[in-house]
Amino acid sequence: MSYRNFFNICGTLPAASLLGFGVFLAGSGRRFVSAASYVAFGWVCAAIVLASVLTAFGGSLHLRHRLHTTAWSRRSTRRRARRAARPVR
User: Fold this and answer.
1) Quick one: which of 26, 31, 24, 30 has its CA closest to 47?
2) Which helix or strand (DSSP H or E) is residue 83 part of?
3) At 72, which helix (H) or strand (E)?
4) Could you please report the per-residue DSSP string of 6-66?
5) Are 65 and 81 in contact (CB under 8 A)?
6) pLDDT digits (tens, 9 = 90+) for 15-52
């Protein structure tokens, strides 16, 4: 698991830096701190995250039948929540 986090960080930092400083914030002086540049950069980052989430969702949708299913319980959810929180007090 740690190698996945390592490669995730190693891929994300350069990509965000190159996209941010190379494309959106590649100005000098007052243009570098332009609010419009940051807004556009934020929207593009959000679109990239949304695309990756939809890709992961679509790629794992056919495996949904392998997930664990729980049996339906007639007990009250509030009663179960109180009983589960009892040792915490």
Assistant:
1) 24
2) helix 77-85
3) none
4) HHHHHHHHHHHHHHIIIIIS---GGGGG-HHHHHHHHHHHHHHHHHHHHHHHHHHGGGGGG
5) no
6) 888 888 888 887 776 666 677 788 888 899 899 989 98
